[in-house]
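Purpose: get a first structural picture of the assembly so the mutagenesis plan has something to point at.
Setup: two entries, given in the order below. No constraints added.
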Amino acid sequence: MRILGMILAGGNSKKMRELTSRRATAAMPVAGSYRAIDFALSSMVNSQIGKVAVITQYSSRSLNEHLSSSKWWDFGRKQGGLFVFTPTITNSNRDWYRGTADALAQNLNFLRDSHEPYVAIAAGDGVYRLDYNKVLEYHIAKDSDITVICKEMPAGADVSRFGVVELEDDDQIRGFEEKPASTELNTVSCGIYLIRRRLLISLLEECVEMDWYDFVRDILIRQKNSRKIYAYKMQGYWANISTAEAYFDSNMDFLRPEVREAFFYSYPEILTKVEDNPPAKYNPGSNVTNSLVASGAIINGNVQNSVVFQNAFIGNNCRIRNSILLNNVYIGDNCVIENCVVESQMVIPSGTEFRGGDKEVRIITE
Amino acid sequence: MIIIHLQKIFKREEKFLYIPNFSFPRELPYAIINTKNIPGFWEREKVVFVIKKKMIAMLLAGGQGSRLGVLTAKVAKPAVAFGGKYRIIDFPLSNCVNSGVDTVGVLTQYRPLRLNTHIGIGIPWDLDKRSGGVTVLPPYEKSKDSEWYTGTANAIYQNLEYMESYHPDYVLILSGDHIYKMDYEEMLECHRQNKADVTIASMPVPWEEASRFGVVVTDKNRRITAFEEKPENPRSNLASMGIYIFSWNVLKEALVTLAEVPSCDFGKHIIPYCFEKTGDLYTYEFNGYWKDVGTLSSYWEANMGLVDLVPEFNLYEEFWKIYTKADSLPPQYMAPGARAERAIIGEGSCVYGSIYHSVVGSNVTVGEGSSISDSILMQGVKIGKNVRIHKAIIAENTIIDDNTVLGHGQFAESLLDKRVYSSELVTIDEDSYIPAGVSIGKNTAISGKTEPEDYPGGRLQDGGYIIKAGGKV
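Result (structure tokens, whole complex):
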């Protein structure tokens, strides 16, 4: 119980296109059975973090529904537990969360009233596994003020949508560049931070005073010369799902054996809300290869290289290829769907064809 | 009459307050008793709340179910897996919740560990309630004598105190070995309209099969006029389903009167007693799907019914959901080259081979080149490569090594127990191991970690069995 968790799940991204018109990015369904926030939450729970606040703002209904019972993550304890914070109107404040630092600052009392010495701050749109106990060990060993979890991307990868860090030899962070147009660097920030609680409080108090709202711009970049900020390099899989393409790719990554091994068949497991769905059902004529199929799905047609989410129905003679069918999708007979994301609850009439491009995934909504 | 624990309310000498002729206000789930209004009770005014349930359920889950052979060697029958992710007890428990019965006593006795872990405090069924909910009731030691549950009615009798604490009007008696969806509320309505003492649920069966069941003969008002146990010339085709609603005072009177009867049983003692005493026994005719899964072949058939295109018993309806204890599991993975047709497959499974007309539980692995048909694989089963399995029931966490063949041969009479093993099924106990390359015949039973030496010539003959040390029949 040395770390307090804060998950920033209020965000939305235009690059998600129609997908986040219904829900916050953190509530996006991922890998058949999960929601994006499950990875951040499970990493904390599995690191024995017993008290977690989820900060929501944008279209939070779906997220709140997912978090409605904290028992799935073994929260709901007398000590600690899961807290959900939405912006509230008070005498001193009539604003929404104006940025990541502002979202934390508006909940300063929660930070002040807690007694955990450290705070882990995580974004709700990453797919990863992280052991915060190891991060804390590193944080203490480096005598770091702020530890930023980073991921080394393969050389030549497009990092233009991330925050890029420039490192010293001992992994101290020398420079930050937000969304660089072109850069030689390939270590990106995962948007996960570990910081001493008292330090965070004083930094946030300064933000309030100065009307600063952004955690990266107004805390990390402003403090990078006066404080020791270190990068902790995450091993293993990490993906950020906040563009439609990244979301698609990240789901497809689960068709690779090493990704499945890391998330599905390793201990401790990724926890999620347990739905009371029956097992998936394969009717005569079904032919499913290299695909993930979640519970409650009923399949009559052909499915290849796809991810089929919970309670999806696929009619006779359908050809589904390289696609993602979200929860409760109904697909009539003789449909062809290629390179698409089919939004949840969609009903696709018999005989319909949808084809996306190889480069640009097509999103099917009403 | 009502009894109130006084010590909790007043610090008085007397432990209990007896209020004779007390009746609960109609249709209220509680009573408020103002002690000032009780004659002879001079204490200062105090308001007491007493919880009351209209109907509580008593679920008999203590039996072994010996006709399921090695499947119930280590677990009680209600805890046996069913339909990929469920256990048999999920069906009556879910029926209770869906019918608005929120107080369920589960009577356990035979090998209750799996059952206890499964039920826990009842969270999956929303039975973790402040008042009522699910209570597991094992046999317990008494001050003078102690005994096991010697019969179904005896088990209920030993838990009179539990039932009394809820002041029920009606008690529903269920058993944990049937697969069905039933609205007990409707049955209760029928019971109330008939002003019955006992209502027995029954279902019409084909006339030619009626002689296999206990049937009830009724008049035109559904009042029971006779019982016939496996009659040669049945006068009715209404088979009793082993589901009873008793009016509380009738049940209590019968249980207390017959307390000394050895192995007191509902069908043999309580029902005949009530029938002779008042005769106000009615039947509630049920016309849905109901399946007894007490034998290996009926258990297999009921599972196989789930994979039909439109199953008679449909788990995929939003209405009347079946709940079970489930872990956070990943989706299942169908590898390139995998095939599944007419099958249901649980979460977290990995299929590299092919599965036809089978029921597969969670976290099962089927290796490359393997082919499964007409079989039931329970959760955690691992099937190696190039394995052929036909008509088998394989219990939890069993490992079948590469290149084995199961269910190959001709039917032969079982050398172990002709009564239990009387079909073509290969039945394998949980946590067993089948070594690579062996061939196993039809109508066989295996329990424990077997070695190649256990298979003379690499073969287990039709009708044969292997029960390793530690395994039990």
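Chain A has a mean pLDDT of 93.
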